[in-house]
Design brief:
single chain; Class I SAM-dependent methyltransferase; transferase; Rossmann fold; two-stranded antiparallel ribbon; 240 residues; alpha/beta; seven-stranded mixed sheet
Length: 240
């Protein structure tokens, strides 16, 4: 992902209540301490920095502008580059691989996932966060009240990210087909099922994050709610 990044706008979102809640929801399903973690497509290093408090973290990111503004309160190794840098890493060397909102912008998904399989330990897992089109349609229609844009998404395909370009959607279970079945889906969690549909003024109330966190965690694996989540958090485990 190497587009022109609106740095200040992105960081404003990260620091807003809904940005903080997003990361809180994703991180609680990656239970790691004392592990070797690879964060591929690490962006501003928000997740890498968080897990570096209690883990040995390597982050790979091609966009130098994002790296320049990265979070680095905790020590972790930052590599500039993409899949070529990944190929240089030793096999079976990481316990956890994190790859959040990256696959939508790549043409070589199978190649990347095969590299993940190579560098991941046999008992390790990969954390993939991906867009879910049904959730975007719900947000367009309900929160933004852009009904025509919702219809356009239904009829004609993919949305566009201001920073990264076209969001090329893919089905969760395509992840199992890449790399000849080296991974199996272990869990699928919904993220941002409800809080993206509420008015922003509600999100500044003192107990909003804790209350909404409890609601989202309670429903994150219930299919009826998960199906309309803005994001899906997919946990993959090695099969070979």
């Amino acid at each position: 992902m190497s587009g022109n990044i609106n740095v200040h706008g992105y960081l404003d979102t990260v620091n807003a209540p809904w940005g903080k809640l997003f990361y809180k929801l994703v991180w609680h399903n990656i239970d790691c301490e004392g592990k070797r973690i690879l964060d591929f497509g690490s962006g501003f290093g928000i997740t890498a920095d968080y897990f570096a408090k209690n883990n040995d973290v390597t982050a790979i990111e091609p966009n130098e502008e994002m790296i320049k503004h990265r979070f680095c309160n905790n020590e972790y190794s930052q590599i500039v580059g993409g899949i070529d840098e990944l190929r240089k890493l030793p096999s079976k060397s990481y316990d956890v691989i994190i790859c959040h909102n990256v696959f939508e912008y790549l043409d070589n998904r199978a190649e990347l996932l095969c590299e993940f399989s190579r560098v991941l330990k046999l008992d390790g897992f990969a954390s993939i966060v991906k867009h879910n089109k049904a959730g975007k349609i719900m947000q367009k229609a309900v929160f933004e009240y852009k009904i025509n844009e919702a219809l356009e998404l239904i009829n004609n395909g993919n949305a566009v990210s201001e920073n990264f370009g076209t969001i090329n959607e893919y089905d969760n279970y395509e992840l199992e087909k890449y790399c000849e079945g080296s991974f199996k889906i272990y869990k699928i969690y919904g993220v941002r099922m409800f809080f993206g549909l509420q008015r922003n003024e509600l999100k500044n109330e003192s107990d909003w994050i804790s209350s909404m966190y409890n609601l989202e965690c309670t429903t994150e694996e219930i299919p009826e709610f998960r199906n309309i989540a803005f994001f899906h958090h997919v946990i993959l485990k090695r099969t070979t």
